[in-house]
């Protein structure tokens, strides 16, 4: 769940982005996993859904490096775009082992970015999401790291 006020908008990085709608101080928890609101899915659950749901989950779900669980953010946190020099980092809080924290002060209107490689291994031969991409001939236009492959 997002813990600060944000808004979505057109991103200069890619498509839709997530932007600060209030000043965010360095060290502030921006997002944390909230069970019952955000989803932690198993491969079996993902593959049990209809094709279009699998495709949607492929776009907005990630397999966490540490927990090996598949996380789906139920709010606009799914619109964090990738950056090689992000203004957030992944960490833990007392309440959640999955959290996104401000790496520095972030101004109102600034796009919130994350280094996808810090929490998601790609490519990963055991990642059910990669299998969905192959099965349905999908190209991950959201992950700029793939342009380097």
Would you write up a description of this structure?
- The protein has helices spanning 43-48, 51-60, 128-136; strands at 6-10, 16-20, 29-32, 39-41, 61-63, 70-72, 81-82, 88-91, 99-102, 113-114.
- The chain is an alpha+beta fold and 149 residues long.
- It has one domain: Beta-clip-like, CATH 2.170.270.
- The strands form four sheets. A three-stranded antiparallel beta sheet has the order 3-9-8, with no helix packed on it. A three-stranded antiparallel beta sheet has the order 4-6-5. A two-stranded antiparallel sheet has the order 1-2.
- Helix 2 (51-60) crosses helix 3.
- It starts with 5 loop residues before the first strand and ends in a 13-residue tail after the last helix.
- Residues 144-149 have low confidence and may be disordered.
């Amino acid at each position: 769940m997002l813990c600060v006020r944000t808004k979505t908008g057109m991103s200069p990085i890619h498509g839709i982005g997530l932007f600060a709608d209030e000043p965010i101080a360095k060290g502030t928890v921006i997002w944390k996993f909230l069970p019952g609101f955000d989803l932690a899915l198993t491969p079996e659950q993902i593959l049990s859904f209809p094709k279009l749901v699998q495709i949607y989950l492929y776009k907005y779900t990630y397999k966490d490096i540490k927990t090996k669980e598949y996380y789906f953010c139920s709010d606009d946190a799914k619109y964090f775009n990738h950056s090689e020099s992000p203004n957030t980092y992944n960490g833990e809080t007392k309440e959640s082992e999955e959290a996104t924290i401000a790496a520095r002060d972030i101004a109102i209107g600034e796009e919130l970015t994350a280094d996808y490689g810090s929490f998601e291994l790609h490519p990963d031969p055991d990642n059910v999401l990669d299998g969905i991409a192959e099965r349905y001939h999908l190209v991950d236009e959201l992950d700029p790291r793939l342009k380097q492959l």
